[in-house]
Every structure is written in structure tokens, then in C-alpha cells.
Design goal:
The protein has about 80 residues and is mainly β. The protein is built from one helix and six strands. The strands form two sheets. Strands 3, 4, 5 and 6 form a four-stranded antiparallel sheet that branches.
Length: about 80
């Protein structure tokens, strides 16, 4: 990938691979202030392979003020 920088002691920070899962998506309604939990969805993200977009599936009409998600999956899914 890219060199991110150099530490004070001269060591270089260099990432070769960045892969991760996102899950448990929820949107916060601007009108009701309630969280609307998404369906069972885990999105695979890989910066090196160009997987950088996740589709949430059905999203109800409305205005949303926040999104939340888990980096990784819950322990039950990961078992």
C-alpha cells in the first residue's frame, strides 16, 4: 500500500494489507431519534483489492443523522 510516515526514531510505518469486516449497521432517524437496525449484513472491506463500498440493502425513506456499525463481527457469528 502506502508509506504512512516515519516515527521520531526513524522507523517507517508501511501498510501492506488492510482487510476488515463491518457489521451491525444502524441508522439514527433525525425525526424520532431512534436507531433503525439493518438486516443481517457483514461487509468485507479490502483497501488493497478495492472493496471499499458496502450496500446496506433496504433503507426506509427519511432523514438520518448518524450511522453506527461494528468493526468485525459479534462473538457468536465469529465462533
Amino acid at each position: 500500500m502506502n508509506e504512512l510516515g516515519t516515527l521520531e526514531d526513524g522507523r517507517v510505518i508501511d501498510l501492506r494489507r488492510v482487510d476488515y469486516l463491518l457489521s451491525d449497521f444502524a441508522l439514527k432517524s433525525a425525526a424520532s431519534q431512534k436507531w433503525i437496525q439493518g438486516e443481517d449484513l457483514a461487509a468485507y472491506m479490502s483497501l488493497g483489492e478495492g472493496h471499499q463500498v458496502a450496500e446496506l440493502g433496504y433503507v426506509p425513506a427519511g432523514e438520518f443523522q448518524a450511522i453506527r456499525f461494528r468493526v468485525g463481527v459479534d462473538s457468536q457469528t465469529n465462533a
